[in-house]
Amino acid sequence: MSNDLRSIDDFNIPEAILNGIKARGITYFTPPQTDAILSGLLKWRNLLVVAPTASGKTLIGELALVNAALSGDIGIYTTPLKALASEKFEELNFWRGFGLKVGISTGDYDEPGESLGKYEILVTTYEKLDSILRHKPSWLSRIKTLVVDELHNVGDSDRGPILELICARTSMLGAQIVGLSATIGNPESIARWLDAELIVSDWRPVKLVEGFYDRKRNVIEFNDGRLETVNNDLITHCVKQALDEDYQLLIFKQSRRQAEITAYNLIELIRDALKTDPTLLLDTIRSESPSRSEAESLTKLIKYGVSYHHAGLSPIARKVIEDGFRRGLIKVVVATPTLAAGINVPARRVVVYTRRFEDGVMKPISIMEYRQMGGRAGRPQFDPYGEVVIADVTTVAEGRKYIYGKVENVMSALTNMRALRIHLLASIASGYVRDERGLNEFFSKTLAFNTPTFFISRANIRRVIDELVLMKMLKIEGNKYVPTELGVITSQLYVDPLTAEIIVKYLNNVDSVKDLYYLHLISITPDFNRVRITGYKKLEEDALSLSDLGLIPDISIVKDVDYDDWLRSFKIALILNDWINEVDEDTIVRKYDVGLGDILTITDVGSWIAHAASVICRAVNLKEHGKKLGLLSKRVDVGVKEDVLELTLVRGVGRVRARILSESGFRTLEELARADPMRLAKLPTFGEKLAYDIVTQANELIRNR
Question: Are residues 175 and 33 part of one domain?
């Protein structure tokens, strides 16, 4: 392994790539980049690169993608989060200046993706790429390289099976796979699975010093031998030191509430220390946040140079905080671990709290999670070193375990029954598997196949196939597995087969129900499990009462739904019901104790599952339910009552403007098309430019009907 920076001119790489990276101001390759090139990165060799944050892994992936595009084929960069996909897309857009076509796709899972073949570099989320591979668009054979960001997610119980099957299918296509990660405990076994050259490096552009707070001695013990005396409580000490030495501080708390409380507690410490002007950030939050309460909460903090950050915030708020921190306009951010999931927000010192409330008790996080957060310490070109301080270990031994211990092994999560049910159906419905021989061949490409317990999974596979037959998703004809129409539709809609079964069972003998019934039904499905929701048990009495009246689904109909999930789903349904009846975001936030980010997630998932339910109902001849669910999906997407839904087809007209238009006498596209733009311009939140654009769009929509 090399340990030195090397000039980019030392390597025989394509001239177009060389010119591109020189135009970016890159003159040297880092050691991991050098090792990747020497190991066959640009010669289509599979690679697994395990190296610290900021060591240059992204450029390794970028070189592979551009190499694929220059060969006339397609390179795909896939990543776990939409925010990460957007960040990478912006970076890769640089190559448009060199004639390459760069695109992004992160949603619409039932869309075949045929049009995406026009791109030479494509950025996706894991889920979207999985959906594309299921639909098998005509350009699939042109995929030359797949770059997998955050490959350690293959061990995640939720996204892991998706990622594992993406790699298996890409391997069957014969494409190059380049896996990138900062934290894998068993890289050798993962590299064997991918048939990849392994590059493991501990090189960082900024030295990382790790330490833990020893409460008994009241010192921070660092692994470079230093002992730092803590004069106050740890947070006060770290904040004061950051202010005195003029660097930024990132604090990771394990709950939203703790992140918010800690941020507010820091106002008095920081209020007189901010030397930069955050006016632009404040103006953006005030003008663009969809919630007055969010804007008020954050402006109280940001004006003093501090903020919290978690998934409950609106996307615009998270972006403003991240940008403000990068630009030095915010000195301290108190975040939950979502900020550590690959988004580029480093700081000189990072403080990590390692205990999280799970299953009624406080549990320590894994070494892998700690390393993900600690990796944010140290800003290249700004900091002489980065420091991570573990805040809450109970013993010296525990602190040293995090610093010196081995990262946990990454194991396959494809072996659980839900994952097998989803991905077995997808593999058969997409034609990757047609019989038992094909099944064995397909699974031989998975990480699960290489685990000692896979013999147990074989029995589970047979059970799942029998289950899918009972669900009428598959037929077994001789030695062939044949997907039914319902099976193909369910797979292409990207929903769990159990979701389809629940929808059909609940609606099969029900003639007419109201919106709340449908909303509770879609919220019961296993595809809603990702949504974070608490405080639902206080709604138990209302839920039981409405169930007795037949206004929401009866818990007893489907054995796979437990009581807690049913209650949790009731709260989600109430949130969705308020949303489609145009209750404003601030009211929903206060009423249900959720964040704007939660509302966005709930409505995104709700719209998707309502749409899927609509298609499923039509497929099984529940056409009236299908029609109502289709309409409901559109209403959930934009958050409006049915009477103004048509108005939201116009770009720039959301739930608020649609209601303003309706109350001003503009209730149809035809009325908008005939409107006087100057009259529209005088309506609240409109303006002249938007008014003219709305009239033009309305006319275009009518012509294209």
Answer: yes
Same domain, 604 and 652: no
pLDDT over 90, % of the chain: 78
Where helices occur in 388-514 by DSSP H, the ranges are 396-404, 417-429, 436-443, 454-470, 485-493, 497-507
Give the CATH number for residue 246: 3.40.50.300
Q: Structure tokens of 564? A: 């807690």
Lowest model confidence (mean pLDDT) among 42-56, 148-162, 446-460, 652-666: 446-460
Q: Are strands 306-309 and 249-252 parallel, antiparallel or unpaired?
A: unpaired
Clarify whether residues 387 and 330 are in a common domain: yes
Which H helix or E strand runs over 335? strand 332-335
* Confidence category of residue 192, pLDDT binned at 50, 70, 90: very high
Host domain of residue 194: 6-200
Residues 42 and 187 in one domain: yes
- Indicate the pLDDT class of residue 343, thresholds 50, 70 and 90: low
**First-residue to last-residue Cα distance in the chain:** 62
What is the model's pLDDT at position 456?
A: 55
Residues 352 and 263 in one domain: yes
Q: Are strands 197-200 and 207-214 parallel, antiparallel or unpaired?
A: unpaired
Contact 653, 647 (CB under 8 A): yes
pTM tops 0.85: yes
> What total number of domains does the chain contain?
5
d(CA 557, CA 418) in angstroms, rounded, equals 20
CB-based contacts of 400, cutoff 8 Å, min separation 6 = 212
**Residue 505 corresponds to which tokens in the numbers above?**
């069972």
Give 693: exposed, middle or buried? Use CB within 10 Å, 0-12, 13-18, 19+: middle
- Of the residues 404, 439, 460, the one at which a domain ends: 404
Task: Report whether 81 contacts 342 (CB < 8 A).
Answer: yes
Question: Do 434 and 504 sit in the same domain of this protein?
Answer: no
Work out the mean pLDDT of the chain and round it to a whole number: 92
CATH number where 690 lies: 1.10.150.20
- 44 and 77, same domain (yes or no): yes
Asked if the structure places residue 119 within a domain, the reply is yes
What is the DSSP secondary-structure string of 226-280? Answer: -EEE-SS-HHHHHHHHHHHTT--EEEE-SSHHHHHHHHHHTHHHHTTT--S--HH
3-class SS of residue 355: strand
Final residue before a domain boundary, out of 345, 375, 404: 404
Q: Which CATH number goes with the domain that contains 459?
A: 1.10.10
Residues 309 and 431 reside in one and the same domain: no
Work out the burial of residue 277: count CB atoms within 10 Å of its CB; fewer than 13 is exposed, 13-18 middle, 19 or more buried: exposed
pLDDT tens for 510-533 read 888 999 999 999 999 999 877 778
Q: Is 267 inside a domain boundary?
A: yes
**Is there a contact between 424 and 461 (Cβ–Cβ < 8 Å)?**
yes
Q: What DSSP state is assigned to residue 409?
A: P
pLDDT in tens, 362-407: 899 999 999 999 988 998 878 889 999 999 999 999 999 999 999 9
**Residue 79: pLDDT above 60?**
yes
